[in-house]
Amino acid sequence: xxxxxxxxxxxxxxxxxxxxxxxxxxxxxxxxxxxxxxxxxxxxxxxxxxxxxxxxxxxxxxxxxxxxxxxxxxxxxxxxxxxxxxxxxxxxxxxxxxxxxxxxxxxxxxxxxxxxxxxxxxxxxxxxxxxxxxxxxxxxxxxxxxxxxxxxxxxxxxxxxxxxxx
Length: 166
What we know:
By secondary structure, the chain is α/β, with parallel strands linked by helices. The chain contains six helices and eight strands; from the N terminus they run βαβαβαααβββββα. 31% of the residues lie in helices and 25% in strands. The strands form two sheets. It has a four-stranded parallel sheet with strand order 1-2-3-4, with helices on one face. A four-stranded antiparallel sheet has the order 5-6-7-8. Strand 5 and strand 6 form a beta hairpin. It starts with a strand and ends in a 6-residue tail after the last helix.
């Protein structure tokens, strides 16, 4: 009976997701943000501002604003919007930055972090810094890659190849 979200979609998706959350208790136990592009974090940016919705924990591995501006100059609006929302001290207190191989247990769900930000990869920079999450629930394994690119995929296969089956 807990809501666990991964990304959430665009700002245009926010009202539908917000209604779902409100209809199911108004509380998000864990919100995983794979990366800050608006097609992944846009709904979060809107919903996190709703005082009626309680977000308990935010899991993300995001490079600095300056890094994103220097390496993803085509998405300045996404970067600015995301970091403006994250200036909130209330939200900052809820952020947990997981490390590779961390396992986050939520009732019968386990989220294993297989990939985090990659500041050394500046090609397709933000996508290549997508957090990669393997969810295990009810004897199923689901792999969430965000928008992981070629370079981070190669790193992921090299470092986590034996854990990718899902």
